[in-house]
Each structure stands twice: as C-alpha cells, then as structure tokens.
Design brief:
The chain has about 190 residues and is α+β, with helices and mostly antiparallel strands. The chain is about 30% helix and about 30% strand.
C-alpha cells in the first residue's frame, strides 16, 4: 500500500508544481504587449492603489460611521488582457472567452468576459470601503453577457447592519446602464 500513496503524493506534487509554473507566467499572457506598462509586466499593485481608468465613489470615509444606505461604486473597463490574465490564473480557458472564431458561433456572436472575472469587480468595490473588509458570503445572478472593452460599474450598498461589524449589501454590476450581475453579499468590516 505504500507505493500507491507515494505515487499519489508525487502526482499531487507534480500538479502543484505545474500550477505554480502557470501562475508565475500568467502575468504575461500569450499575444499581449509586454512593454513597460505595469499591468502587462505582472508587477504588484499596492494596496489601495487605483490605476488610470479606474474610478471610485464613496459615501463615507470612516469605517466607524458605516451604516444602512452607504455605498461604494467602482468603475473600470474589462479588456482582452484582463480576460487572458484571468484565464491563465484561473485555468478557465473556455473558447467563448479566448477564441473569436469559436465564440462567433455561439448565441453571443463573439467573445465575452468570464462571469467570475466580472463578478470580481464587486470585490474590487468592497476593497475600497474604509476599514478591513472580509467576505462572508456572496450570491450572484448573471443577467447579461459582458463584451470585451466594456466599461463596468460595480455598486455595493449597505442594506442591513447585522451587528458585530457585519453588514448585508446589495451588489450590482452594470454596463451601459444594463444590469449584468445582481446579487447580495455579507461582509465583516473592521475599522
């Protein structure tokens, strides 16, 4: 019985090494410019840092003052480089996201962004709230596809103070006034 366990360990180790290798090269996806733009070279982004083209709107600046009605909005475009980096990092290489010819044969008529990538803008918005935000739960309903180069706005609004620094929020992502994702989150926010 020792041999199969040893083999399983070696296979798990090999899988882990392959995964780490993929992540280490994920910052420079095939077919993208690898110039000095930090987004394309894989350099780290600092906590709280915004990039050109990113916009944030907050109704409150102090975590101790958060309450029902407060909201945060985060806006950015999702482009080909974002989609390719997400595919490399997540392993989701569905052709509908990466292959224009294959995607053109689908009901969408072309490539679309990963739903989970788009949903990540909710997390990006929450990260801009004052204090330290920890996700406890997230429900999302995907209502519309997102074409590449779409400008998206995630809006998170506190709708209930659950006590003990926990809040329930509505979470919505829109593109050109159309709701793409609708949902609800529960977060812990410590100031």
């Amino acid at each position: 019985m020792l041999w199969p366990q040893s083999r399983m360990f070696k296979n798990a180790l090999a899988l882990s090494q392959a995964t780490m290798s993929a992540f280490s090269t994920a910052s420079q996806p095939t077919g993208t410019d690898t110039g000095t733009d930090e987004r394309r070279t894989g350099e780290d982004i600092s906590a709280g840092e915004d990039r050109p083209g990113w916009e944030t709107e907050l109704t409150v600046e102090d975590a101790t003052e958060l309450g029902v009605g407060d909201e945060v909005r985060f806006t950015k475009s999702v482009d080909d480089a974002d989609v390719r980096r997400f595919a490399a990092a997540s392993g989701d290489t569905n052709p509908i996201h990466l292959d224009e010819a294959a995607a053109s044969e689908t009901r969408f008529g072309g490539r679309i962004a990963h739903g989970t990538l788009v949903g990540g803008l909710i997390s990006a918005a929450l990260a801009r709230l004052p204090g330290t935000v920890v996700y406890l739960s997230q429900d999302m309903e995907f209502l519309a596809p997102v074409e590449l180069d779409s400008e998206l706005t995630a809006t998170c609004r506190i709708v209930e103070d659950l006590g003990d620094s926990q809040f329930r929020l509505t979470t919505v992502i829109e593109s050109d006034g159309e709701t793409c994702i609708d949902g609800e989150a529960v977060v812990l926010i410590e100031g």
